Structure formats: C-alpha cells, structure tokens
Amino acid sequence: MELRHLRYFIMAAEEANISRAAARLYVSQPAVSRQIRDLESELGVTLFKREPQGLNLTPAGEMALAQAKTILRSASQLTDSMQAFSNVGRQITLKVGFIPTALPGLLTEGLKHFNREHSEVCIQIFEMHPGEQITALRRGEIDLALPGAASRKVKEDFFTQSLRTTPLAMVVSTDHTLANRKTVDLADFAHDPFLSLNEERFPGREAMHQRLFKLAEINPKVGIHASGLNEILGLVGSGAGVALVPTDLNRMQSSGVKFLKLRRPTMTFNFSAVWPDSDHRPTIESFVKVLASIEQA
Length: 297
Description:
Elements: H1 3-15, H2 18-25, H3 29-43, E1 48-51, E2 54-57, H4 59-86, E3 92-98, H5 103-117, E4 121-127, H6 130-139, E5 144-148, H7 152-157, E6 159-173, E7 183-185, E8 194-197, H8 205-216, E9 222-226, H9 229-237, E10 242-246, E11 257-264, E12 268-275, H10 281-296
Parallel strand pairs: 3-4, 3-5, 7-11, 8-9, 8-10
Antiparallel strand pairs: 1-2, 5-12, 6-10, 6-11, 6-12
Helix pairs in contact: 1-2, 1-3, 1-4, 2-3, 5-10
C-alpha cells in the first residue's frame, strides 16, 4: 500500500464520482479505478457501492476513510517537521524535457515567472522527442515532460494536465498550387506525397494519418518519415511533400512553408504536461500551474 492509493481513495470518496476525482488529481479515470481496486484487494474489503448516481461508501469504506485521512495527515506532518533539517542549504533540481514548440512563449515565460518566486528550485531543460521524454520519465531521468499530445497509456501511467489546445493544419511549400488558399480540405491533397514523423520518436502519427485519410476518403502515399520537427518543415519547404501538423508548429521559424487551416476533417491536439508521482511532485505541480497560467493569459 502506498500513500498514492489513499489519496485516490479519499478524493473518490469526497467527489463520490470517479470522473471528478480523476480531474482533480490530473489523472485518467482508469488510473483512479485501478488504484481503488488495488487498495480494495490489499485490504480485502469493498470500499464503495457502485450505484448509477455515483459512489457510496460501505461501512468498511467509512472506517477506512477516517483512517486514511489520519495517515495522510500524519505523513504531511512528518514531511513538514523534517523541512527544517532537509532544506538547509539544499536546492531542488527539476529536469524538464520539451519539444521545440514548447520553448517560445510557454516554457521561456513559464521559467521567468517561476524563477522569480522559487529561487530554491533549479530547472534544467532538455530538448527531446516525445517518445524519448516518456522513456526518460519511466527511467527517472527527467521529472516533467512536455511532449505535446499525451496518449491514453501515458494518461493512465502518469499525472497529466492539458496546457493548450491546438488544431491540426496542413503545411505546404510556398510555391504549392494551394498555398494562397485560406482554408483547405484534406481531400484536396489526394495526389500529393505526404511527409510524416518517425513513429518511434513521435508515437501515434501513423494511426492519426490513417484515421484522417479514411475520413477524407483518400489514400495518398506517405513517403519520408522525418526524425524531428525542424526536419519535416525543411522537407516541406524544399517541395518534398505536404504534412499534417499541429498549428503551433508555426511558432518555429522556418522559411519556404505556409500553414493552411484544415476545414475537413478537423482534429485538435491537447498539448500536455506529464509527470510521475515523486518526492518533487508538489514543486512540479507548482511549475505546471505556472505554465497553465501562461497559456490562459
């Protein structure tokens, strides 16, 4: 049993609803359900009655809730009482992975605001592909990932928070026959070669293409799989093909390309922050809160 099990249980009991508890914890619904099932299995009791109107505590659940709150309160008091010893001359170092589109505006402004209020925290940033960031999180090599969109599996395994929503766009070379259009349909590019991103580094791209191609009723050739975001923009600019990318990619300076609003089919990406449960979680979440405020401003 870990303190995380108790936190999830208490939140579910307070909200009487798994969805609301998950939202407050910044995790997926399956993650909350799994932790509660694990806790019930370890205790050998049923903590909740699952009813259509929500969750109701069983008698065992009522007793467990009171004791869980006492345990968490004691754990918090222990942590607080040790602060005077543990923080003497100590600086917290957070390692943050990011993709290039996170740097302008979001990450630079977030660091500026956070550093003014938290001189005891040193944040190191590392440009990494999304796949590398998630691997690094699992290995404990970074504390926070800014990988762009987070997959269902990532949401089940980590804490996540959406920082901004950005629509999908078509990016073409400036001399493409449709470059002067304001809006386009994906079907307009049925005979163009498409460029994509390396699946290992940018998981989910292949599935996204197939889903959108099916909706547009086209079957174009997907040729080059670029290893990075600057590379795919450079290839598009050279006339090697067209690409489907999040609109926020236009924050990266790249000559010879034009971003076009995609009218049909539409799709949006949630640019998310991803982090594990760790000793630095309160500090990480403080930084994530600052990043979210930057995007909302």
